[in-house]
Specification:
alpha+beta; Dipeptide-binding Protein, domain 3; 12-stranded mixed β-sheet; 4-stranded antiparallel β-sheet; about 30% helix; globular
């Protein structure tokens, strides 16, 4: 009894804790780690999901992938190279200062000042060559060439206070300094590996969120996340383990919601170096020649992978096998581009044709805490590659370690995931398959360093094409060409699945957004 009283007292002081939480508090179990509170450092969905509670963007996409005004109440094209944005008047930062065009310009400049970002936001800002503050509430953004996808770029950029954050670095944000946004919640604390605590911003410009206090708990072990939901320690969890979905759906105390994700899970293969760090001969010795540069070897690897089996066995049917970047049925997806069918004999023949009849050695790298069943997928892919003679080892690690090492091109084959936000083709193609160019931001996450000038030209042309039907065809052509050359090897699209306690409601999102301000109770 004494222990319970002490726990209850501590919970009351903190204001956050499952069964001790007040009626107007919400506790959410997150399934992916949060690596940084810096809104411009690491372009990772799990970070962005948390940061969007505190910071806003000029525009955003709803759960149907449609562009919506946020801090910018309107916009227009002044000419082919210039976009003008009108800001909402009277929007206040959490410290009481007013949002102005100067804050927007500062926020767009800041990503380029950060170094060692594992997934840089400059992917979305490099096209802007000039920023003009017309007045306190008006800013014009000029690009070197027409930019038909400017709004989709700006979906990804958080607007921060110049006054509150000038001179602050990433560690300052992680320590809570500079966490001054215009979002629906105010920052309280970030306990790395544990939780993020928030309180409602009663001066928020938008709809008032339902919850006085929110605790976003980092519960990275799937079983522990489910257990926390069942016990009532949390009211909602994301990334429901596929093996538990059917059982949870039959529980009368729970509500399970899901939708197809815009995220594609894929393999990226080192296609640029003659000596790749984790490719060996069958004896484990380094090879003078990188077999991954050979199209036949890449195709053999693709054929060795039985995507349907991964979907059925590993993902318990809660995924969709894919042969392209954008989920089938999304705008600009390619209707006839189907996933490779597993073919062990065909894979062996291709390896023999390429000069590797006995195969070779390989280490497959990936995360163990970022994507749904990521460790299991890695192990399953390794088993499939072993069957065709590619002796494959697996090395999995926390996302924070993996992304940092991947950015340094430490791996030969890595498993990644790209969410693409609202599912616009540009975000996938520009990041994953265009030629890497630090100056323009193209190919920012093209870690295999695939390069084809024809793909680059199609993407560049699509990005400046205003006619939507013509633009769609260009995206499709770029996708078909990159996939025909196996720029990356798509595996499947995840299903986004959430589970909530009875009486709590949430509309599932394709972009994986787990937002406390969209949770309601009836």
């Amino acid at each position: 009894m004494r222990v319970k009283l002490v726990l209850g007292f501590v919970a009351a002081l903190l204001g956050f804790s499952g069964p001790y939480a007040g009626a107007a508090d919400l506790v959410v179990g997150l399934g992916a780690d949060v690596t940084s509170m810096d809104p411009h450092f690491a372009n990772i969905t799990s970070n962005s999901n948390v940061l969007l509670h505190v910071f806003d963007r000029l525009v955003d996409a709803d759960n149907q992938r449609k562009i919506q005004p946020r801090l910018a109440e309107s916009w227009k094209n002044i000419d082919d190279l210039t976009w003008e944005f009108k800001l909402r008047r009277g929007v206040k930062f959490h410290d009481g200062s007013e949002l102005t065009a100067e804050d927007v310009a500062y926020s767009l400049d800041r990503p380029a000042t950060l170094v060692n970002s594992p997934t840089p936001y400059t992917l979305y800002t490099k096209s802007i060559v000039e920023k003009t503050i017309v007045d306190k509430y008006t800013i014009r953004l000029k690009t070197a060439t027409p930019n038909a996808i400017m709004l989709y770029d700006l979906i990804n950029i958080f607007i921060i206070s110049k006054k509150a954050t000038s001179g602050l670095g990433t560690e300052d944000f992680n320590a809570g300094r500079g966490m001054i946004g215009t979002g629906p919640y105010k920052f309280v604390q970030f306990k790395r590996g544990d939780r993020i605590d928030l309180v409602r911003n009663d001066a928020y410009w938008g709809s008032k969120p339902a919850w006085d206090k929110v605790s976003l708990r980092l519960i990275l072990t799937p079983a522990a996340r489910v257990a926390a939901l069942l016990s009532g320690d949390v009211q909602m969890i994301e990334n429901v383990p596929p093996a538990d979905i059917s059982k949870l759906k039959t529980n009368p105390d729970l509500n399970v919601v899901s939708t197809l994700s815009s995220r594609v899970i894929y393999l990226e293969l080192d296609q640029s170096r003659d000596n790749s760090p984790f490719v060996t001969d069958k004896a484990g010795k380094p090879m003078d020649k990188n077999p991954l540069k050979d199209y036949r070897v890449r195709l053999a690897i693709s054929k060795a992978i039985n995507r349907a089996a991964i979907v059925d066995k590993v993902m318990e049917g809660n995924a969709m096998a894919t042969g392209q970047l954008i989920p089938l049925g999304f705008w600009a997806s390619v209707p006839g581009l189907k996933p490779e069918i597993g073919d062990v004999d065909g894979a062996k023949k291709l390896l023999a044709q390429a000069g590797y009849p006995d195969g070779f050695g390989l280490t497959l790298h990936g995360t163990n805490d970022r994507y749904v069943n990521d460790s299991k997928i890695l192990q399953t892919v390794a088993q499939m590659l072993n069957r065709v003679g590619i002796n494959t080892k697996v090395e999995s690690m926390p996302a924070s370690v993996f992304f940092s090492r991947r950015n340094k091109l430490d791996f030969s084959v890595g498993m990644g995931g790209w969410g693409g936000g609202p599912g616009h083709p540009f975000t996938y193609l520009k990041s994953l398959v265009t030629t890497y160019d630090a100056k323009t931001g193209f190919g920012a996450n093209n870690n295999g360093r695939y390069s084809n000038p024809k793909v680059d030209a199609l993407v560049a042309q699509a990005a400046v094409t205003i006619d939507m039907s013509k633009q769609e065809k260009l995206w499709q052509q770029a996708t078909e060409l990159a996939m025909s050359e196996l720029a990356i090897l798509p595996l499947h699209n995840q299903m986004n699945v959430w589970a909530l306690r009875k009486g709590y409601h949430f509309v599932p999102r394709t972009d994986e957004g787990t937002f406390a301000f969209e949770v309601t109770a009836k």
